[in-house]
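$ fold --in a.seq
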Amino acid sequence: MAIRRYWLSLIEAAWRDRTVIWLSGVRRAGKTYLSRSVPGIRYYDCELPEIRSRLEDPTRFLAGIGRARIVLDEIQKLANPSQLLKIAADHYPAIKILATGSSTLGASRKFRDTLTGRKISIRLTPITLRDMRDFGHRTLSHRLIFGGLPPLFLQTRLREDFFREWMDDYWARDVEELFRIQQKSPFAKFVELLMHQSGSIFEATTFSRPCEVNRMTITNYLAILEGMHVAHVLRPFNSRRAIEIVAAPRVYSFDTGFVSYFNGWSHVTPANRGILWEHMVLNEIHAVIQSRQVSYWRDKHGNEVDFVVPRHGRPPIAIECKWSAHEFNPGGMLSFARAYPGSVLAVVAQDVRRPTKVRFGTNTIAVLPASAVPSLMG
């Protein structure tokens, strides 16, 4: 049994601050597996009718727990999950709760109380580089093509049926159930096209004709995917300068496996490794900062930075992703530095093993391996 040490450390740290943790993530990301690996945990599956029946009286249930750590898996299946979590946080401080769910939106529709100040949220991402060490020997190429959902990552043969089954399950249990969308075909076509073009500038009108729906419907589809962490929408970082792009977002898939599948890639090649590496670095950033607040930067001269992480009260972090450090052209990064003096500038490259620094005039750019992303974010 693999022990995902980074995520367990996040859970332990969160419990030192709050007694309730909300653990979200897409289907098959490993939330149940992770939660059951927490030392001393008791597990309750809220999809089971008998468990839901026991939880109908939260006070009686919690009073019978005593001092313990418990998992409430798929908590959005309860009629009123916020009531149980609020009572636990306010009156049973000896109980540590890890509440999980595939859909943040699904749970939030049931959370009639915001639980502000009572819970900490952790979003489990697909497998990170640190997780790869915990799961055993798999190459980076394997991770990029198979993706970061553990059931497929652990396979030795690429199962294309896994992606189809995941999409069918996602449609039936999340999209159709929560949003009552009647037509599966245009939504499925939209997801296919979005995954195929992942990492590109998003323009809703380009999807309308092939999906046979209007622009507003496409916008709603994207909001669903973003709200459920299946798509990452990166909006332009800007300060409203006339030369900056301020409106067009970039959209990334949540996982490299789906990008590879919908593009028909079975191997990492010079043609696809750059975009897959971008997705991998973005996954590393999300795992560390636990926030969707990642942007990109571009000006009207075509200068661009892959990712920008804003920091409250401090200059932002600008990140370029390169498969090889030798491919790096500093033009975009230096243009960003002129617009935002004092920014932290970094290149994250696949072929770099230890951090170095390169000077360009008055600017210093760190050249880092992906393993250094946590320290960069710190």
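$ fold --in b.seq
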Amino acid sequence: MISPLAFVDPEAKLGNNITVHPFAFIDKDVEIGDNCEIMPYASIMHGSRLGSGIKVFNGAVVGADPQDFRWKGEHTLCKIGDNAIIREQVIVNRSIHEEQATIIGANTVLMAETHIGHDSDIAEWCVLGNGSQIAGDVKIGFASILSTGAKVNAGSRLGDWVFIKGGCRISGNVPPFVIMAHNPAVYYGVNAMIMRDRAERFTEEEIDDIAKAYRHIYQCNVSLFNAVKRIQADIKPSAPRDAILKFIQECNNKIIALPKVDMYD
């Protein structure tokens, strides 16, 4: 059902069983999959690619022009995965790079007034709380949660299963499975409660090993160099342990909230 009071550009490609409410705006060069609903005053701008089963609430803007002076009008994209929910007044900017995309993963929920900057990549099953602000070139891992008013600065990376408490400001790399809180951000523990809700993914032994790994990193007052050595020696290989070590390696040993110690202590 497409309301006659909505604007849908003739060049837009719409799937089956789509509902477009009055005063919604769908631009040219837009593709929307089956079973989507676009609420009143929502805008789907050119370069947007929406999967199936997506609901875009009132006043949201998907595929807005990037807020970066490096963008000179190149054709860029914004991709939204299946079954995502985009609540009121959310803004998602397109990429600044030719034919590249800002990406929102399937089953992710962007709560009211969230802002996603250009070229950010939000994985599947994430929840971003009301008023979360994600700058450009941010990567957020699978099943991560940002509480109300969390802020993530440009170029930061968050691992899988991360929980960021309300109002926390992130500037850097957050390893997987942890909780971060306060401003400046500090390590607040392991995201065990959420991980236990997914018992098919994590055993109690794996959660204990994750907690032990982060005790070495954040609570033993040793350098990250030596914490990694301790993890390799003390904790038997497993998918979560290896994910922690891989993340640290890929970030060139640069993760946030580390204790201030000499490099080789």
